[in-house]
Automatic annotation (TrEMBL):
<dbReference type="InterPro" id="IPR037171">
    <property type="entry name" value="NagB/RpiA_transferase-like"/>
</dbReference>
<feature type="site" description="Part of the allosteric site">
    <location>
        <position position="146"/>
    </location>
</feature>
<feature type="site" description="Part of the allosteric site">
    <location>
        <position position="153"/>
    </location>
</feature>
<keyword id="KW-0119">Carbohydrate metabolism</keyword>
<protein>
    <recommendedName>
        <fullName>Glucosamine-6-phosphate deaminase</fullName>
        <ecNumber>3.5.99.6</ecNumber>
    </recommendedName>
</protein>
<dbReference type="GO" id="GO:0005737">
    <property type="term" value="C:cytoplasm"/>
</dbReference>
<feature type="active site" description="Proton acceptor; for ring-opening step">
    <location>
        <position position="138"/>
    </location>
</feature>
<dbReference type="GO" id="GO:0006046">
    <property type="term" value="P:N-acetylglucosamine catabolic process"/>
</dbReference>
<dbReference type="InterPro" id="IPR006148">
    <property type="entry name" value="Glc/Gal-6P_isomerase"/>
</dbReference>
<comment type="similarity">
    <text>Belongs to the glucosamine/galactosamine-6-phosphate isomerase family. NagB subfamily.</text>
</comment>
<dbReference type="GO" id="GO:0019262">
    <property type="term" value="P:N-acetylneuraminate catabolic process"/>
</dbReference>
<feature type="active site" description="Proton acceptor; for enolization step">
    <location>
        <position position="67"/>
    </location>
</feature>
<feature type="domain" description="Glucosamine/galactosamine-6-phosphate isomerase">
    <location>
        <begin position="10"/>
        <end position="225"/>
    </location>
</feature>
<feature type="active site" description="For ring-opening step">
    <location>
        <position position="136"/>
    </location>
</feature>
<dbReference type="Pfam" id="PF01182">
    <property type="entry name" value="Glucosamine_iso"/>
</dbReference>
<feature type="site" description="Part of the allosteric site">
    <location>
        <position position="155"/>
    </location>
</feature>
<dbReference type="InterPro" id="IPR004547">
    <property type="entry name" value="Glucosamine6P_isomerase"/>
</dbReference>
């Protein structure tokens, strides 16, 4: 996979936003897969700045959701649909008609998961999927030992994840759902370009395992090694445990000018 080491989170966000902008210039109706959380915010902010300056037109772009809480109404302010509407859709000027996501309130959640997989395929597939990574190597809500061939499915949140997410629910863990729908690793791998962004020393071990370790279910993100076009963008802190950091810097610095990430 391609590894790009950047000075800080802002630089990473700008690099990925430009890759998205280049994609949208080639394919105005591209389907962008997006994730929630604090890590991708610099990407969305940089892309929104390009929209405001008219450096890119996102009016025909489409957005696909990576995961969603089960049982939380779509209009709830902490549903991932609502979060993405605030952080991605509205800043980019994309309406809900350009949004795709699983139905977390469906009576038959398993059927809703299968329906979302089919919808992604029917839409032509995700062109670029933005990912974050957990300190244990999880991507989406595919925790360690998830099947590397898994499809969109329901997963049970760990107690620690519910504790961590309670801050979004007035610090009341009882309000945090117990389950989520997540794209499976097999589903994620079907995107044409995977871009993983990681910042901070807390992600260094997971990044080292993802990039330089063996492909293993104990670290779900290692599945990116199997993808023909996967890019890992990390700041200096997240790159601190990479044995070949010097090579990655040299390799990217000497790429032909016409190649992006």
């Amino acid at each position: 996979m391609e590894v790009v080491i950047v000075p800080d989170a802002k630089a990473g966000g700008e690099l990925i936003a430009e890759a998205m902008a280049q994609l949208l210039r080639r394919k105005p109706d591209a389907l962008l897969g997006v994730a929630t959380g604090s890590t991708p915010l610099p990407v969305y902010e940089a892309l929104a700045a390009k929209v405001r300056s008219e450096a890119v037109d996102t009016s025909r772009a489409r957005i696909a959701q990576l995961d969603e809480y089960v049982g939380l109404p779509a209009e709830h302010p902490e549903s991932y649909r609502s979060v993405l509407r605030r952080e991605v859709l509205e800043p980019l000027g994309i309406g809900m008609d350009g949004f795709m996501g699983p139905d977390g309130t469906a009576e038959d959640v398993r059927a809703a998961c299968e329906a979302y997989d089919r919808a992604l395929s029917a839409a032509g597939g995700v062109d670029l999927q933005l990912l974050g990574i957990g300190t244990d190597g999880h991507i989406g809500f595919n925790e360690p030992c998830s099947s590397l061939a898994s499809r969109t499915r329901i997963k049970t949140l760990t107690e620690q994840t519910r504790i961590d997410n309670a801050r979004f629910f007035d610090d009341d863990i009882e309000q945090v759902p117990h389950h989520v729908i997540t794209q499976g690793i097999g589903t994620i791998l079907e995107a044409r370009h995977l871009v993983l962004l990681a910042t901070g020393a807390g992600k260094a071990d997971a990044i080292a395992a993802t990039v330089e370790g063996p492909v293993a279910a104990i670290c779900p993100a290692t599945a990116l090694q199997l993808h023909p076009h996967a890019t890992v963008v990390v700041d200096e802190a997240a790159a601190s445990e990479l044995e070949l950091a010097g090579y990655y810097r040299y390799s990217y610095a000497h790429k032909p000018d016409w190649q992006g990430i």
